Amino acid sequence: MTPAARRALAAAERLFYERGIHAVGVDLIAAEAGVTKKTLYDRFGSKEQIVVEYLAHRDERWRAFLAERLDATEPAPAERLLTVFDASRAWSSENSPKGCSMVNAHAEISDPAHPAHAIITGQKQWMLTLFTRLAEDIAPGGAERLARSLMLLHEGALVAHGLNVFPDPFTLAREEARAILATAGRGDRA
Questions:
Q1: What angle do CA 29, 52, 54 make, to 5 degrees?
Q2: Is pTM beyond 0.70 here?
């Protein structure tokens, strides 16, 4: 990616997240990035593709951020699962004061035919797969159900954080997840 394309993507990411995808036009992205509209269209082809690149880049960064934290945590299965909530709290305070970019994007792009839709739903499917993989060490016979419960807590915390409904939803979600994990561990051994 050229320096101009990187500037354009950085401007698009900031603007789409702060103002919303539909509220931001190509003219504004070009002006904020200090590039021409021609440069944007030469590199990305369309606004839709800029949206795809924005969401894919954000997802890539989140996955790397989470992987780093999971790699640094102790190997105990419950701690690894709870690390996801800790990482989300850190990521959200650093990168997402208005909530999850994928959830926010889905509020604007719900048409499965839109090229960004697959990025949005793919990211959430990846999270569910991660929760399932991590849950297998705690509840091998019930990992799928446990993962879905943890995913609901996680997504609820992301939305509550973005809406600023109450302080620190990630701590509450983590505490609830810990309680579920304790029950799941006992139930699977029975």
A1: 50
A2: yes
Residue 184: what pLDDT? 86
Nearest by Cα to 54 from 63, 64, 44: 44
Inter-residue contact 3 to 24 (CB < 8 Å)? no
Q: Token pair for residue 163?
A: 């809406």
- pLDDT tens track for 105-158: 999 999 999 999 999 999 999 999 999 999 999 999 999 999 999 999 999 999
For 45-55, how does the pLDDT look when each residue is reduced to its tens digit (9 = 90+)? 999 999 999 99
